[in-house]
Amino acid sequence: MKDNTSQLLSLFSIAVIPFIPNNSLRYITVISTVLTLAAYLVYTNTPNRQVGWLDASVKELNALFDQAANECIRDPRFVYEAGLKLSEINYELSTLRSRVMSMGYTPWRPYLYHLRAIASSIQECRLEIEELRSSVLFALERARQQWYREDIDRRLATLARAFPEGSSHQSFAEGRRRISLPTNEQSYMSA
Which domain of life is it from (predicted)? Predict the structure, then answer.
């Protein structure tokens, strides 16, 4: 809530500037607005905050992976590959967290050097998280499509057995498109 408050305060002060009659008060308002925005940008881009965002993303990814492990039972290779990638991401995040904690006791000159290295590591980790998330979501959708496809086939077979001479379900069956499903050899993970 504090982040939203500082953003709203900055926007409000920018909107009020034309209505301030005194020039010196205008300058003070402009300077305080710029300083508030700069402080907000620095605060939200600290390594601690970025690692916290990555932590939340990995927790969400763990829950998504658990769901995918339950729904993608027919593709064990994907489950094991994604699980391995998720374990690697968890290890990478733990290493980043310890590096960020150790930066708190670093003098300012080495701090700036380490800040650049940690920022690039955080960006790489963020990209890996997004790549795995999209891969897991894609695998979930493919598993659901396969389940829907099998459900359609079951229902059509039931209709064919129950009404062998009816033509209403045959026209539906003839008009629907076939969706190609991946075989078990195909993987959802990119190499």
Answer: Eukaryota
Structure token pair of residue 51: 């690692």
Same domain, 148 and 182: yes
Integer CA distances (angstroms), 23 to 18, 29, 30, 52, in order: 10, 10, 11, 42
Residues 68 and 161 in one domain: yes
Total domains present in the chain: 2
Query: What is the rounded distance in angstroms from the CA atom of residue 136 to the CA atom of residue 191?
Result: 14
**Global pTM exceeds 0.70:** no
Is residue 51 within 8 A of residue 96, CB to CB? The reply is yes
Amino acid sitting at position 143: A
Report pLDDT digits (tens) over 96-120.
999 888 887 778 777 778 888 898 9
